[in-house]
Design goal:
Layout: H1 3-24, H2 28-56, H3 62-75, H4 79-111, E1 118-122, E2 125-129, E3 139-142, E4 152-156, E5 159-162, H5 164-167, E6 173-175, E7 180-181, E8 186-187, E9 192-196, H6 204-213, H7 221-252, H8 256-270, H9 273-292, E10 295-297, H10 300-307, E11 309-315, H11 316-320, E12 326-332, H12 337-348, H13 354-363, E13 372-378, E14 382-387, E15 390-395, H14 397-402, E16 415-421, E17 424-432, H15 439-448, E18 453-457, H16 462-472, E19 476-478, H17 483-494, E20 500-505, H18 511-516, E21 519-522, H19 529-534, E22 537-539, H20 545-580, H21 586-604
Parallel strand pairs: 11-18, 11-20, 18-19, 20-21, 21-22
Antiparallel strand pairs: 1-2, 1-3, 3-9, 4-7, 4-9, 5-6, 5-8, 10-22, 12-17, 13-14, 14-15, 15-16, 16-17
Length: 610
C-alpha cells in the first residue's frame, strides 16, 4: 500500500468513526453536524476535483456524478445518505487503487531486470558506467551476482547464468567462451569478460523494457467499447436524471421531493466506474501474469485477438524441432556402435561442418587427433583420412561406391553419413533435426484446448516434413516453401473464413509471416531483434508449451472481462429501472455503484493468478 493510500485509509476510518458517532447521538443538530463533518472529511477532494473539472470543461465523469448526487441529497436533507454514499465511494476508490497496484506489481517485477551499471575495461582500468554510456565493441566484466548489462559474446571465463527473469525458465544456462550473453541475465558462478555487440538501446533488455512500458498503448476492442460507452453514457445519464427529476412534477403535478430523490438515486447508480476500472485492470493483470512466465504480449488488443485463435501454423526448424543436426540413428555393420562412433568422430575431428560437429558432440569423449592424418575434404562427397594408419571414408553413398566397396542403400529420412574403414563398409550414421521434447505434448494440449486446425509451414523437403508432422499429429503440412510462399500460404489460411490464425516461428527468417497473420508468436526470441519487432506475442524461452499457456491466459482474461461487463450492466440497469419506478433506496444505489465496482475489481484481480 502506498503512502497516499495509507493516508486515505486513515481518512476513511476517521470519517466512519465520526459517522457512527453521529448515528448514535440523539441530538438532531449534533447528528447533522457530525454527518456533514464525516462527509467533508472523506469527500472534500472529490468535491474540489469535480469543481476544477467543471471549470476545465471536463464535466462528465464519476466524480461529477457523485458530487451532484450527494449535494442533491444534502439539499433534500438526506445528510446520512450523502455521507454514506461518499464514504463508500472513497472506500471503493481505495480498494480499486490497491488492486491496480497489485496488478502493476507483476509488470514492475519485470522492470527490475534493467541493470544499474556496467564495469568497462578502459585503458587497463575498470570503470563503472551507466549501460547507456558503453560503446559497441568495448570489453565489460560481469562478476558473480551481477546482472549482464548489455548483449555480447563471452571472451574469457565460464559461468552459469540465471535467465528466469527473461524466460521464466528456472534452470541456469551454462555459457563459456564464444557464448552469447544476453542483457538481463544474472551471473551466478565466476567472473566473465564480455565483448559488447551493440549499444544499450539495441540490447535485448532495452527492447523488452520498451515493449512492457508500452503494452497499454494497443487498446483492445473491449476497452475501446468502454471508452466510447463512457463518453456517451454519462451525458445521457445526466439528461435522464434531469428529466426524471422535473418532468413528472411539471407535467403531472407529482411531488418534486419524491422525483428529485429518485433522480439522485439514479445518478448514484449510473456511475460507470465498475466498467471503466475493471476492464483495463483485467487486461493489465492478464499481461502481467503472462510476463511472469516469460511471455510478453504487446498490448491488450493482441491479448484479445489471441483469445479468439482457433488455428495455428508452425514453422518447423527451431519451433517444432531443435533447429540443427543431431544423431538420430546409429547403424553399425560388423562393429559395435561405440567403435563406429569413434571412427566417425576421429574422421570428422578436423572439420567445422555442422554435421561433423554433431557427430563429435554425440560421441562425447575426448578425441586424440594424433591418431588422424592425411585428411582430405572431397567436395560434394565427404572426407578421406588416415586413422591409426588405415584409410577411413566418411560421406555420401557415392564416396563409398567410388572405392568399389559394397554398401547398402539406406532410406531413413535425414542426412546419412556412410563410413568405410580399411576397405570395408562398417556402418552409417543418420542425422536429422530432432523434435523438441515438449512439441508433441504441446500440440496435443492445444487441440484439447480448442485449437481446431494445426498446420506446418516449412522450407524443408516433404519427406522430412511428413516424418515430423506424423509424429506430432499435425493436421496439414506444406513443405519446400520459400519465404514468399510461406507468406502466401499464411494469408490463404488467414482468409479462409474459419476463424483467427496464429503463426509461431523463430522470429528471424519468419518475420514477414509473423507480421501478416492475426497473431504472430515469436518462439525462443531471447536476443532476436526481428522477433521483438515483428511479433505480437514474444515467448522468451524455447518451449512450445508456452504457446498453449499464452492462449489459456488470453481466454481466461477475456472471460473475466465479459463477466465484468455483464455483471456491471445488468445490476446497474436493473437498479436504475427500479429507482425510476419508485424503489428509491439510496443504499441499493450505493451497492449498484460501489458494490458492483468492488465485485468487478475482485473478479479482475483473478487474472493475476492465471
Amino acid at each position: 500500500m502506498s503512502k497516499r493510500q495509507k493516508r486515505n485509509l486513515k481518512r476513511i476510518i476517521t470519517a466512519f468513526v465520526i459517522f457512527i458517532a453521529g448515528a448514535i447521538i440523539p441530538d438532531i443538530t449534533i447528528k447533522i453536524a457530525l454527518q456533514m463533518i464525516a462527509y467533508l472529511t472523506v469527500g472534500y477532494d472529490v468535491l474540489l476535483s469535480a469543481v476544477r473539472k467543471i471549470f476545465r470543461g471536463n464535466i462528465f465523469d464519476e466524480e461529477f456524478l457523485m458530487t451532484l448526487a450527494t449535494v442533491g441529497a444534502i439539499i433534500m436533507q438526506e445528510f446520512s445518505e450523502a455521507a454514506m454514499v461518499m464514504l463508500l465511494f472513497q472506500t471503493g476508490e481505495l480498494f480499486q487503487g490497491i488492486a491496480v497496484g497489485k496488478s502493476r506489481k507483476s509488470i514492475k517485477e519485470l522492470m527490475k531486470i534493467k541493470p544499474e551499471f556496467a564495469t568497462v575495461l578502459r585503458d587497463g582500468e575498470e570503470v563503472k558506467l551507466p549501460p547507456e554510456k558503453v560503446e559497441k565493441g568495448e570489453l565489460i566484466i560481469v562478476l558473480p551476482g551481477e546482472r549482464v548489462p548489455l548483449d555480447g559474446i563471452i571472451e574469457e571465463g565460464t559461468s552459469s547464468f540465471d535467465s528466469s527473469s527473461l524466460t521464466g525458465e528456472s534452470i541456469p544456462v551454462n555459457l563459456g567462451v564464444d557464448g552469447k550473453a544476453i542483457s538481463g541475465m544474472i551471473n551466478l558462478d565466476s567472473p566473465v569478460k564480455i565483448r559488447v555487440s551493440g549499444v544499450y538501446a539495441e540490447s535485448t533488455i532495452a527492447k523488452i523494457l520498451h515493449l512492457v512500458e508500452n503494452s497499454a498503448v494497443h487498446k483492445s476492442q473491449s476497452e475501446k467499447f468502454i471508452t466510447k460507452f463512457s463518453r456517451r453514457y454519462t451525458p445521457l445519464v445526466l439528461l435522464a436524471a434531469v428529466i426524471t427529476a422535473f418532468l413528472p412534477p411539471l407535467a403531472f403535478g407529482a411531488s418534486f421531493s419524491v422525483w428529485i430523490r429518485r433522480a439522485l438515486v439514479f445518478l448514484v447508480v449510473s456511475c460507470p466506474c465498475a466498467l471503466v476500472i475493471s476492464v483495463p485492470l483485467s487486461f493489465f493483470g492478464g499481461i502481467g501474469a503472462a510476463s511472469k512466465r516469460g511471455i510478453l504480449i504487446k498490448g491488450s488488443s493482441h491479448l484479445e485477438m489471441l483469445s479468439k485463435v482457433n488455428k495455428i501454423a508452425f514453422d518447423k526448424t527451431g519451433t517444432l524441432t531443435r533447429g540443427g543436426f543431431f544423431v538420430t540413428k546409429i547403424m553399425p555393420q560388423g562393429v559395435s556402435e561405440e567403435r563406429l562412433m569413434e571412427i566417425a568422430a576421429l574422421g570428422e575431428s578436423f572439420s567445422t561442418h555442422p554435421i561433423a560437429l554433431s557427430i563429435i558432440n554425440a560421441y562425447g569423449k575426448a578425441i586424440d587427433k594424433t591418431r588422424v592424418s592425411d585428411v582430405v575434404n572431397m567436395a560434394g562427397l565427404g572426407i578421406k583420412a588416415t586413422i591409426d594408419s588405415k584409410e577411413a571414408l566418411l560421406g555420401n553413398i557415392e564416396l563409398i561406391k567410388e572405392q568399389k566397396i559394397d554398401v547398402p542403400q539406406i532410406t531413413e529420412p535425414g542426412s546419412i553419413v556412410y563410413i568405410a574403414y580399411d576397405k570395408e563398409y562398417i556402418g552409417a550414421i543418420v542425422l536429422a533435426d530432432e523434435i523438441k521434447p515438449d512439441s508433441k505434448e504441446a500440440i496435443e494440449t492445444l487441440k484439447e484446448n480448442g485449437i481446431r486446425r494445426t498446420v506446418m509451414l516449412t522450407g524443408d523437403n516433404m519427406l522430412v516434413a511428413q516424418r515430423i508432422g506424423e509424429k506430432l499429429l499435425i493436421d496439414e503440412i506444406h513443405a519446400s516453401l520459400m519465404p514468399s510462399d510461406k507468406v502466401e500460404k499464411a494469408l490463404s489460411l488467414k482468409e479462409d473464413g474459419e476463424g483467427k490464425l496464429a503463426f509461431a516461428g523463430d522470429g528471424i527468417n519468419d518475420a514477414p509471416v509473423l507480421s501478416c497473420v492475426d497473431v504472430g508468436i515469436a518462439m525462443g526470441a531471447l536476443g532476436s531483434d526481428a522477433a521483438i519487432e515483428a511479433a505480437d506475442v514474444v515467448i522468451m524461452n524455447d518451449s512450445l508449451m508456452a504457446v498453449n499457456d499464452s492462449i489459456k491466459i488470453a481466454r481466461k482474461t477475456m472471460r473475466i472481462v465479459r463477466q465484468n461487463i455483464i455483471i456491471s450492466l445488468v445490476i446497474k440497469f436493473g437498479v436504475m429501472v427500479l429507482s425510476t419506478l419508485g424503489f428509491d433506496n439510496m443504499y441499493a444505489a450505493i451497492f449498484a455503484d460501489v458494490g458492483v465496482m468492488v465485485l468487478a475489481v475482485l473478479n479482475a484481480m483473478r487474472t493475476l493468478r492465471l
